[in-house]
Amino acid sequence: MSFCDDLHLALGYEIGLYDINGNLKEGKDIGFKDVDGIEIGDFTFIRIGDNILSIKGKLSQDACNLVKLYFSFYKNKEAADVLQPLEYILKNDVSKEKLIGKFLNKTTMYIMCPIKYFNILESIYDGYEAELVKDDEGIYIVKEIENFEEEAESILEELKQEGANNVIIGSGRQVKGDYTIKNSAIHAKTSCLLAKNLGYNEGIFHIDKMILYGIISEGDMAKIDFYLNGGYENFYDVYRDKELINTAEELFRCHLNISEASRRLYLHRNTLLYRIEKIKAITGLDIKKFEEAVVFRTVISIFKLKRK
DNA sequence: AGTGATAAGATGGTCCCGCC
DNA sequence: GGCGGGACCATCTTATCACT
């Protein structure tokens, strides 16, 4: 709830908060007038510092003074919230408006691993401008990141050397504009959780590449069922066949390059083609083709994310 | 280097038959 | 009836070649 929402609830009038140039900062755009003190009419305008508060209603002088008092109290409280440490922000419900601009250009990574590795991560980032916060399932790292994949690879490597297995690293986006540190942190952890639900127990996942799975995961099951209805039953035969699923996954990892995938699977290229043909016979989809590979992967992801 | 087509080899399952 | 050997077939894997 913003200041204008709160005041609207209290007074029953529509409220708009403008800067001195008439730009709406929050609330409803009900009109602006540059006044020095207080102007009371059908609309009430109150100057508070570098702000003009527009109220769609007639207030008494006393009420206007109370509003001014409430404004200063509210903004001080808001300022206090914004000054809270990162841990408070990540773990509490701090409104989006209050966070805009804070941690500008920083990105959040989430390292899903046992908390005992917190000290190791701390020592890795000792001397760097980075903040670390732990929760029940892992550790947030907030810093300016140039190349997420490179940085995550090196963290993964370090943690492996320390005996950590099954580490998943997720990343949100860089904080800028309306995209806050909280958004970045939620995205980072969500990337990890989605990857885990998709069956990965290790790896590096950026939210930019997880969008499809996020939509599936959050999506309305009734609507998803509407699109699945009457088809895709045969996909279960592939879904249950570890060998076929691994074959398809490796092909996707190799960007549909048959030769590369067969090398990585230690298979003859024709063996891989044979399996791809088998998938086609079962599902009707030729996963060598981009469009059909996308459909295949989407349906399999729905099975993984929604039918566990 | 990558792809498509084809042939050949390897493997595993099923069936039939003869022997105990 | 139970067991082992051989034939047959389907499935899977590999090798090769021509072509882009």
From TrEMBL:
Q: Name one Pfam family in it.
A: HTH_30
Signal sequence, start to end: none
Q: List each copy of the PucR C-terminal helix-turn-helix domain by range.
A: 244-296
Classify the source by domain of life: Bacteria
Task: Indicate what this protein is called per its UniProt record.
Answer: Fis-type helix-turn-helix domain protein
Q: Which organism is it from?
A: Caloramator australicus RC3
